[in-house]
Amino acid sequence: MTFTQWRDRFREWRGHRPFAGGVLLVLGGAEILVTMKAPLPVILHVGMQGLAGYLLPTLMVVCGLLILFNPTQRLFYSIIAILLSLGTWLTSNIGGFVIGLLMGAVGSSLSFGWLPDQEPRQSRRQRRKETRTERTAESVRQDGPLPGAGKPA
Fold it and tell me: What does the domain layout of the chain look like in residue ranges?
């Protein structure tokens, strides 16, 4: 398989799922996990004996992967992920120094708002142009190509 074939297959796969949201969620959870391994003077708040500090970001990563590989259940996973992201504020160094919390919140919001098989948006200019052509075509159908053509003078 050549690189261009692989790239085209990946683009098609990526187009059928909330890719940006899932990746942001995985990266946010990974960032929070990395900040949990920070040296003790940098750590602001360990929280709940450390277990929840590792559990919530791990579940964020799992939800992000599930959103990527099972997009049909994206609504459920994104709701769970936003709750997990907000929970890291208390349990994991203020949500990975706020960066991981924001990445998780934005990723889960993008996943929640993603719609499969949605038509691409049209600009106002394009919609106006289409309505003008429809009106012109309709008037030509009603009046004929030339108004009053075929009638005796």
Answer: 3-113
Confidence check: pLDDT of 121 > 80: no
**3-class SS at 147?**
coil
Which residues in 23-41 are b (16+ Cβ under 10 Å) and which e? bbbbbbbbbbbebbeeeee
Residue whose token pair is 């277990």: 51
141: number of Cβ within 10 Å: 9
Q: What is the model's pLDDT at position 53? A: 79
Alpha-carbon distance of 91 to 93, in angstroms, equals 7
Whole-model pTM: value is 0.71
Measured between its terminal Cα atoms, the distance across the chain in Å is 72
Which DSSP category does 94 fall into?
Answer: H
Encoded tokens for 147: 């108004």
pLDDT band at 144 (very low <50, low <70, confident <90, very high): low
Of 95, 88, 24, nearest to 55 by C-alpha is 88
